[in-house]
Amino acid sequence: MNTTTAVPAGRLTSTALGYPRIGPNRELKRALEAHWSGRLDADGLEAAAAAVRAGMLDDLSVLDTVPTGTFSLYDHVLDAAFAVDAVAPRHRRETALASYFAAARGDDAAAPLEMTKWFDTNYHYLVPEIGPDTEFKANPDKAVAEFLEARERGLDARPVLLGPVSFLLLAKPAANAPADFRPLDRIVDLAVVYVEIINALGRAGAGLVQLDEPALCADRTREELAATAEAYLRFNEDVEIVVGGGYGPLGVALEVLRSAGVEGFALDLVRGRSDIETLEELQSPHVSRETYLLAGVVDGRNIWRTDLARAAADIERLQRISDRVAVSSSSSLLHVPVDLAVEHDLPEGLAERLAFARQKLEEIVALADPDGPRDARPESPEAWRDAAVRERLAALDPGADRRVPYADRAAAQAARVPLPAIPTTTIGSFPQTAELRKARAAHRQGLMIDADYRARMRAEVAAVIAEQEHLGLDVLVHGEPERNDMVQYFAEQLTGFATTAAGWVQSYGSRCVRPPVLYGDVARTAPMTVEWTAYAQSLTEKPVKGMLTGPVTILAWSFVRDDQPLADTADQVALALRDEVRDLEAAGTAIIQVDEPALRELLPVRAAARAAYRDWATRSFRLATSGVRPETAIHTHLCYSEFGEVIDAISALDADVTSIEASRSKMEVLTDLDRARYRSAVGPGVWDIHSPRVPAADEMAAALRLAVAALGPGRVWANPDCGLKTRRYEEVRPSLAGLVEAARAVRAEVA
Ligand code: MET
Ligand SMILES: [Zn+2]
């Protein structure tokens, strides 16, 4: 008989779907980086990892059932690949650990796995490569060991694995796979190996295993659902299975999975509340009083306190369906920082409205306690509202987000700033040297006075302008030396934002970000960038682009208030940017770039919600950028690949020039743009700045020729894929020299 039955019938219990795994003080980050630089051996790394796992269990032990296996040295999708031995031959090394990091980070011998965004979040996972001949083999050691670590402490534990369907849907075909091969074709082979892993967990004492299938929170085809049923039908062994969604409603997948014999679900009741109705309609025989229902009422992706009254009401509805209900988080708590208790400098009233991972566990425990608190969420304080912003938005006339037609603007812009065919430019940032970072840190800590800091930054701007003039670029940038981060820089200057001291969240591997908290109405109190741009322009005859971050990206990379629609918050940010854009124009800036690299990231997982997203996202961008005269050019910049699903939105931004990451996709995006009736100019990235490699000039010229063939010479700009802040001058100088040379060569051909 199994010893763990996570949810005793009738009694409401507590659990969570996963926990931050980098350590409260980013201990794992430091250990990883020490290991990679050769300062810490494998045993030392394992000791640090064990300490982080122990800390996770310490925190989680307040729950009736703890999730296990959600620790990761780098990424949980990579862990899943190793659990089934789906390791590309080029990444196999002497030890499993070395293979793991070769796949994650690459080395001299092999490129790493591709990295991409995890659903609609800012977490990045590694994309497994699966071919027809990938040999799956069960490696249950990590899952079993982490389960036993929890059991040894006397905790009731539920192992968590990435499910087989999502694993294959997140994978891409291996390079040698035939054109019609899809990773999901391998579902049966993979399910067999999952059975072995599940059985190994069962032998170790697990009665219930959670298989996360976040990919089933997206629209799935009939075939994909059939493949899901086929896999899950194989799992009716001794061990019970709950399927976790975590990123929206599971929808029709609920019935498919129940029919295939799954014993229950972990529901996202923050974004997927419609699953409650779906379950109510399903009822018997699909849902019974024995069905496990993990009620994800505590938001795993945002940091606001839970409305306990509303959560309790949702839980009660589930209890009317089943006796086995547990209170849980909506997704893994991976996406939130560990502890609010270390934040001492938050604005008045904010801390009591926030919950980080530890506080979320307290909320879960409180909700599972029949006598626990059931408070509704308090209204935001009046002081966080800005009547002027609200009135201004309400009074906007319907055409406030429109400019004159592109053709008229293009003519006016060409007359104001004559440029050669295929103008050359960069995306904004120049290398952030160690010395620059040191100056910013010293200034922040009060060790460098404002005047010295400004002088240091001005010197950097002057050096960056001189570099660009020397290289012969056509449209210059100031280089962004004063910006710590493209969102935080603005958040620090706008009202309604707070920054945290230690609110770190894993972005990928050892890299963490500290998203600002957007809690109140947003307004600009003074110009934010004009001084730097104007100074840069004073040093050169060439045009200098103004450089701003767009509303969607500011929202995507912050923790955003959830007491009003995102669209309303985006419009407030847009108005603040609109004033900045106008001030830049008034200061003589002829070209203003508003970056939206996160445009795709916020795209809803379900197609039904996408049109509304595209509407508000593009409207807020246009609101930010449409306040200028026709002769002022608005550029935008998009990166992070795979724009297929937002191609229409790119046209709807109505920018005059769009620079877009394209070098790795071999300019494919151009045909897509053309099909989406995008008619203004494009700067397809011709240099992959994610790699230290210096591209040859003729390689970049070849890419530009493709672009010219697709769009005509009048609509093409030459630029890198993204900003240069992570690169070194030794790479930047020859690469940009080559870019200028390439543009000149192609320019001569089209003249
Ligand atoms: C992630 S997009 C970055 C754009 C920004 N202007 C830069 O050059 O760094
Ligand atoms: Zn970029």
UniProtKB/TrEMBL annotation:
Classification lineage: Bacteria, Bacillati, Actinomycetota, Actinomycetes, Glycomycetales
Cross-referenced Pfam families: Meth_synt_1, Meth_synt_2
Name of the molecule in the record: 5-methyltetrahydropteroyltriglutamate--homocysteine S-methyltransferase
Cofactor names: Zn(2+)
The organism of origin for this protein: Glycomyces harbinensis
Pathway: Amino-acid biosynthesis; L-methionine biosynthesis via de novo pathway; L-methionine from L-homocysteine (MetE route): step 1/1
E.C. number(s) listed in UniProt: 2.1.1.14
Binding site for 5-methyltetrahydropteroyltri-L-glutamate: K29, N122, R511, C512, W557
InterPro entries tied to this protein: Cbl-indep_Met_Synth_N (IPR013215), Cobalamin-indep_Met_synthase (IPR006276), Met_Synth_C/arc (IPR002629), UROD/MetE-like_sf (IPR038071)
